[in-house]
């Protein structure tokens, strides 16, 4: 008799397949048995069991024929997953939790096809807040999926069914969507990782929109490495019009992170205490350097989402269905949408101008920090409390999430230390556009410190010891060699990372350069006709579109020229005017700026 893990993870299942402890057919038998005996409010439609077993059998046959070839071809071989019911699956209804609107697409969303091509097994579509409008998980005519930690508490929305399915061990991962926090709040309330990528990193073809200009597809999983592996399979191809983001590379810790100065008025005491405990644990572990950050501008951006003309975009998406089937609408969703018609075209432009001004101020907060680290949700309401105040409590739940997509940022919610009442309390890493890998690496390193329970159990989740594999680049890139203050871990490195630069390698110049100390924080690299030496440099890669902006920040006597490496390659790199080093200290013998600084300690 096979033993299906209580909370299957992607890495755990793949390891079990490799060691022949499990096979895809056994896993699907176990999963379907759990689905049949579990909470029916999680699901809105299923893949027929016959089809599931046929797919599992075909994958098992590939695994038995040539295991190595099978794993190369199928990075998600035999991994069960679910998708939110606003994501198209061929021949299954898409309802967005409004049965009267039922559509049956002939094609699946691009992301579903990509995951199936990677060997994953789709088992069904999950319940949600109607039309993806809500953060509570209670706005579905098909009922509220039960929070696996406390049935009288909300599961979080709008991707409620996807989060509960993963947290309950029904699937190894699930897809949600996230416009205002719907891929993060449910993760925080179900002890999961909720990865919300930079808008545009994953294509939304085949997704019934809430706000098309803001919508993102999100991933629920038990570990950061699992969520990252799923993200890698869903990357859009170069022909997609939004394939423009190149994620940041690995990071050195501790990193400076923006944190709350005091308990926000939206937070309950237990949420605040859990947040403080997680931040303190990460600081004590040497992973973060907390920086008190003023979030006033971020909160003003958040207010625009539901108190501004973006509601009119929701009306554009599904207002016709509301008008045609008013009796099918959830009362809270209908109440939100009744205000959408009051906005004019002038209101749209006025809001865009206000957002542009606020966004500039928000982005400048990252001059001093690498990321924000905030509570995922400020409170954990009961079902009764939400029923009594459906709009007010929903608004409070978006306090730390609503602004992210309006600012074009990425975010990753992960399990933090639990509340005193035994409920989950997620924390969320938030970064500038393109910082997806930076956030994932930070969260992966934080897991052993604050993510101490897998699902609703008490076991410690498995850890990924290896750095996350970078995502592919889709836009033209330029390599830049840096030799001084722009090296990783040095003060000006942020000028690279804030422009989506990725660390490539550490190399050496050809033996035709000398290194001089210009100031205590800045060296100069000069090419000499003779007497040169090999100098250590780092190679970074950044989008061509951001290169000119980067060069504009370089002060004299430094500039960018062609740097010769010791293998004969030439790259763009920092060089110094020879006149500037006539009275400077020659530190060539150190071999590089990092080694020179280390020798001073």
Quick take:
Helices cover 33% and strands 18% of the residues. The protein has 601 residues and is α+β, with helices and mostly antiparallel strands.
Keywords:
five-stranded mixed beta sheet; eleven-stranded mixed beta sheet; 2 domains; alpha+beta; 33% helix; 601 residues; Hypothetical upf0131 protein ytfp; Amidase signature (AS) enzymes; 18% strand; 20 helices
Describe the 3D structure.
It contains 20 helices and 19 strands. By secondary structure, the protein is of the alpha+beta class. The protein has two domains: 10-248 and 374-450, Alpha-Beta Complex (Amidase signature (AS) enzymes), CATH 3.90.1300; 477-600, Roll (Hypothetical upf0131 protein ytfp), CATH 3.10.490.10. The strands form three sheets. Strands 1-3-2-4-6-5-10-11-9-7-8 form an eleven-stranded mixed beta sheet, sandwiched between helices. A five-stranded mixed beta sheet has the order 13-16-12-18-17. It has a three-stranded antiparallel beta sheet with strand order 15-14-19, with no helix packed on it. The radius of gyration is 25 Å and the shape is globular. It starts with 9 loop residues before the first helix and ends with a helix. Residues 239-249 have low confidence and may be disordered.
């Amino acid at each position: 008799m096979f033993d299906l893990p209580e909370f299957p993870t992607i890495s755990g299942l793949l390891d079990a397949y490799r060691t022949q402890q499990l096979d895809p057919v056994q896993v699907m038998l176990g999963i379907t048995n759990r689905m049949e005996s579990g909470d029916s409010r999680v699901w809105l439609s299923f893949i027929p069991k016959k089809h599931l077993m046929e797919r599992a059998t075909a994958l098992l046959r590939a695994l038995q024929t040539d295991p190595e070839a099978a794993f190369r071809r199928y990075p998600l071989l035999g991994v069960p997953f679910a998708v939110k019911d606003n994501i198209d699956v061929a021949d299954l209804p898409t309802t967005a939790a409004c049965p009267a609107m039922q559509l049956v697409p002939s094609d699946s969303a691009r992301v579903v096809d990509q995951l199936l091509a990677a060997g994953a097994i789709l088992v069904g579509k999950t319940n949600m807040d109607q039309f993806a409008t809500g953060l509570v998980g209670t706005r579905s005519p098909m009922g509220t999926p039960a929070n696996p930690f406390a049935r009288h508490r909300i599961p979080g929305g709008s991707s409620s069914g996807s989060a509960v399915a993963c947290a309950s061990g029904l699937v190894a991962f699930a897809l949600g969507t996230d416009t205002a926090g719907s891929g993060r709040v449910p993760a925080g309330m179900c002890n999961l990782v909720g990865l919300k990528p930079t808008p545009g990193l994953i294509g939304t073809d085949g997704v019934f929109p809430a706000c098309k200009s803001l919508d993102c597809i999100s991933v629920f999983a038990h570990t950061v490495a699992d969520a990252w592996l799923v993200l890698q399979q869903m990357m859009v191809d170069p022909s997609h019009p939004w394939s423009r983001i190149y994620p940041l590379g690995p990071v050195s810790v501790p990193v400076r992170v923006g944190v709350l100065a005091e308990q926000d008025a939206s937070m309950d005491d237990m949420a605040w205490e859990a947040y403080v405990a997680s931040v303190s644990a990460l600081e004590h572990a040497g992973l973060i350097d907390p920086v008190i950050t003023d979030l006033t501008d971020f909160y003003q951006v958040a207010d625009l989402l539901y108190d501004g003309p973006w509601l009119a975009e929701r009306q554009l998406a599904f207002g016709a269905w509301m008008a045609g089937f008013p009796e099918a609408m959830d009362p809270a969703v209908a109440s939100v949408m009744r205000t959408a018609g009051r906005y004019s075209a002038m209101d749209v432009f006025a809001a865009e101008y206000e957002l542009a001004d606020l966004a500039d101020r928000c982005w400048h907060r990252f001059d001093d920090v690498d990321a924000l680290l905030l509570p995922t949700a400020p409170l954990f309401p009961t079902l009764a409390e939400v029923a009594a105040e459906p709009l007010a409590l929903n608004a409070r739940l978006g306090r730390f999430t609503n602004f992210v997509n309006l600012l074009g940022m990425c975010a990753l919610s992960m399990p933090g230390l639990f509340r005193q009442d035994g409920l989950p309390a997620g924390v969320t890493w938030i970064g500038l556009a393109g910082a997806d890998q930076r956030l994932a690496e930070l969260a992966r390193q934080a897991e052993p410190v604050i993510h101490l329970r897998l699902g609703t159990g008490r076991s410690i989740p498995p850890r990924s010891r290896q750095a996350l594999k970078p995502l592919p680049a889709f836009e033209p890139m330029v390599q830049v060699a840096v030799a001084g203050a722009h090296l990783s871990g040095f003060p000006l490195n942020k000028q690279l990372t804030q422009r989506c630069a990725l660390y490539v390698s550490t190399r050496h110049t050809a033996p035709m350069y000398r290194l001089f100390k210009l100031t205590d924080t800045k060296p100069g690299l000069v090419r000499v006709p003779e007497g040169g030496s090999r100098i250590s440099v780092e190679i970074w890669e950044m989008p061509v579109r951001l290169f000119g902006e980067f060069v504009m920040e370089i002060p004299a006597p430094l500039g960018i020229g062609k740097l010769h490496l010791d293998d004969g390659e030439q790259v763009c790199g920092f060089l110094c005017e020879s006149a500037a080093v006539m009275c400077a200290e020659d530190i060539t013998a150190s071999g590089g700026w990092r080694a020179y600084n280390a020798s001073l300690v």
